[in-house]
Amino acid sequence: MSRKADSQTRENIKEKRKRRRIYRVRQFFRLILLILLLGAIGWASYHAYLWGSAVYEVLRADYDAYTRRHEQLKLPSDDRSEAYMNLLVLGVDNGIGGNNRQADTLILLSIDNKNGDLRVLSIPRGTLVGVNREKGAVPIAEIYGEGGVKETVKTVRDLLGISIQYYAVVNMKALADIIDTLDGVDVYVELPMSYADPEEGLVIEIPQGYQHMNGETAQKFLRFRSGELGDIGRVQRQHRFVKAMYERLLQLDTIKKAPELSRIARDEVQTNAEIWDTAQIANIVKSFRKEPPETIMLPGETASYDDKLWIPDEAKIHEMIKELFPEPEQVQEK
Questions:
Q1: Cα torsion for 196, 198, 199, 202, to the nearest 10°?
Q2: For the chain, where are the E strands, in sequence order?
Q3: What PANTHER family does UniProt report for this protein, alphabetically (predicted)?
Q4: Where does the pLDDT of residue 223 fall: very low under 50, low under 70, confident under 90, or very high at 90 and above?
Q5: Full-model pTM
Q6: Distance between CA 217 and CA 197 in Å, rounded?
Q7: For residue 29, what pLDDT is reported?
Q8: Residue 123 neighbours by CB under 8 Å, 6+ apart
């Protein structure tokens, strides 16, 4: 019995030693795996830090460049414009007869950041502005074809004496696509419109009264210039159209059309609004009121020697801007 018990004891000892060796081997491999895992985590964390730092530097550089771009559109010591979002909308043609493209429509949209009030200031395309001594004054519509959108924004900024934070260049196709996406817009036509330009291939025939306009008809309505009032009549039609569009955009069914409108704005409209502006613009748009916007025409008069030209009245423009954009102290007093 003693030999058998002694043999059993030795077997038990061997088994325990075997188990210990297996345990130690497992612990060793667990330790190796832990070290490798910690190393991988450390490596990933380090490279994530480097990647995050690189992304931060890119974003910071992008934001700094964005800030500099917007500072260039701002006038020195122009505190009164800070309370408003000013957007210059340029409606450009396709360049007729091989000529440079022109800004047929120039409209400044000014939105009060606090209450969402919208003011619409139209600048006649024939407004004379001084460019340089060699060429003298030229119609403001021609600035776009010669100096592009930036020079046009600068010219309007200097003409009005206010900062313009944003611009949007809308060609005829983009305008038509926007209106067609909205399923048209209802506009009142005061007098029958009839005009033909074989060289341009343009035929306009719009009857008097309320018209449900698609994109093509709206283009013709806005481009029509014939009539006794000339550019004044054209600006008045722009104002009626802007009010009609504003009312249409505030309707509930516009919400489901937002994705397509956003695509058109992204693909077909040239603008300096960037991702950094999204939140601010969205908050302002949400505060829009149901009341139609206030519409204003640039003070001036038709040139006696050419009814297509508009001579701006600098004194009246100055008074208009003081009323539209009061100094911060005046706003607080009110």
A1: 50
A2: 84-92, 103-112, 118-123, 128-132, 136-139, 166-171, 185-189, 193-197, 202-206, 209-213, 269-271, 294-297, 300-303, 306-312
A3: POLYISOPRENYL-TEICHOIC ACID--PEPTIDOGLYCAN TEICHOIC ACID TRANSFERASE TAGU
A4: confident
A5: 0.71
A6: 16
A7: 65
A8: 106, 107, 108, 140, 156, 159, 298
